[in-house]
Design brief:
six-stranded mixed beta sheet; globular; 2 domains; alpha/beta; 6 helices; two-stranded antiparallel ribbon
C-alpha cells in the first residue's frame, strides 16, 4: 500500500490576516480545523506541519501534528512558491529516512475542508492513475471565460476570441477554478515534472458551500459565519 503524507504549510508571516494560522476562529486556532480533518480522514501515515515559526510549531504539536523540522525563513516569504515548500519537506523527510508515495497538501486557510474531501481526493488519485488530483468549484455562468469581458483601448471586448458567439449567459460553457481545499499528488510527480500537477491532473468537484479560502478579514468573518451555521 502506498504511503501517504499529509503536509500542512503554515508560515508565520501573514499580511492579509496577521497571525492567522493560530488565531482563534470560532473559539479554536485556525490550524485546528486542518489537523482535525486530516486525523479523521484516516488516510495518512504521517501528517507533518511545515512552519518557520516556533509558536505555530508548538500549536501544531498540541493538535497532534508531526513537526520534525522548522522551515528556513527564506522559504517562508510572501513570494515563496508552494513547490519549494513541498520539495523542502520531502528533502527533510528523506534525510531522516522516510519518503511517501503520495503527498496531500492541506493549507490551514481552508477551514471548511472535511475528512470526506481528503479521502475522496486520495481515492481518485489511486484509482485514476493520474499525476495529481485538485479540488475545484464551478464558476457561476456570468464568470465563465465565454461571458467575461476585457477593456482594450477604452472599448469593451470579449475576453476570448470566440466570445462574440456567446450572447446568452445560459450558453456559456462551464468553467472551474482550483479552490485550494485539497491538492493530492504523487511524490514522483514533483520529482519528474517539477510541479505538483504533472501532465495528468484530475478535478475533484466540491460544493461551493464547502469551499472557502481565508486571505482577508472579510474571508475570516465568512468562515466564522459558516462554522457557526454548522
Amino acid at each position: 500500500m502506498a504511503t501517504v503524507l499529509g503536509l500542512v504549510p503554515a508560515r508565520g508571516g501573514s499580511k492579509g490576516v496577521p497571525g492567522k494560522n493560530i488565531r482563534p476562529l470560532a473559539g479554536r486556532p485556525l490550524l485546528a480545523y486542518t489537523a482535525d480533518a486530516a486525523t479523521a480522514s484516516g488516510v495518512f501515515d504521517r501528517v507533518v506541519l511545515s512552519t518557520d515559526a516556533a509558536e505555530i510549531a508548538d500549536c501544531g504539536r498540541t493538535l497532534g501534528l508531526d513537526v520534525p523540522f522548522l522551515r528556513p525563513a527564506a522559504l517562508a516569504q510572501d513570494e515563496t512558491p508552494m513547490l519549494a515548500v513541498v520539495e523542502h519537506a520531502l528533502e527533510e523527510l528523506g534525510r531522516a529516512g522516510w519518503q511517501p508515495d503520495i503527498v496531500v497538501l492541506l493549507q490551514p486557510t481552508s477551514p471548511l475542508r472535511t475528512p470526506r474531501h481528503i479521502g475522496a481526493a486520495v481515492d481518485l488519485l489511486r484509482r485514476s492513475g493520474a499525476d495529481s488530483v485538485v479540488t475545484v468549484v464551478e464558476l457561476p455562468p456570468h464568470l465563465s471565460p465565454d461571458y467575461v469581458m476585457r477593456i482594450e483601448d477604452g472599448r469593451l471586448r470579449p475576453f476570448l476570441a470566440d466570445g462574440p458567439r456567446v450572447v446568452r449567459r445560459q450558453d456559456a460553457r462551464a468553467a472551474f477554478v482550483r479552490d485550494g481545499t485539497v491538492y493530492a499528488f504523487l511524490t514522483d510527480t514533483v520529482r519528474l515534472s517539477g510541479t505538483i500537477y504533472g501532465e495528468d491532473c484530475r478535478p475533484l468537484l466540491i460544493d461551493p458551500a464547502e469551499s472557502l479560502s481565508i486571505d482577508t478579514e472579510a474571508d475570516w468573518a465568512a468562515a466564522e459565519r459558516a462554522l457557526a451555521a454548522r
